[in-house]
User: What shape does this take?
Amino acid sequence: MTLPVLYGMSGSWAFRSVWAMKDSGVDYEHVPTHFLQEAKADEFMDLTPNCRIPCLVDGRLDILVR
Assistant: This one.
């Protein structure tokens, strides 16, 4: 089983998602992704074409968390 992957920086809207994941005790991988630089990379745009942060990939379902 793969861990959910959360993309985003704690200095962006992702801080709430990081906080919720830590607070709930969910095992996850955090990939710090800066919304002005890394979010424009082709690899990230494959996950979320509108470049929104945070982005949660759980292996079964890709969802945008806002």
Remarks:
- The two ends are 25 Å apart (CA to CA).
- Residues 40 and 54 are 13 Å apart (CA to CA).
- Strands lie at 5-7, 29-31, 55-57, 62-64.
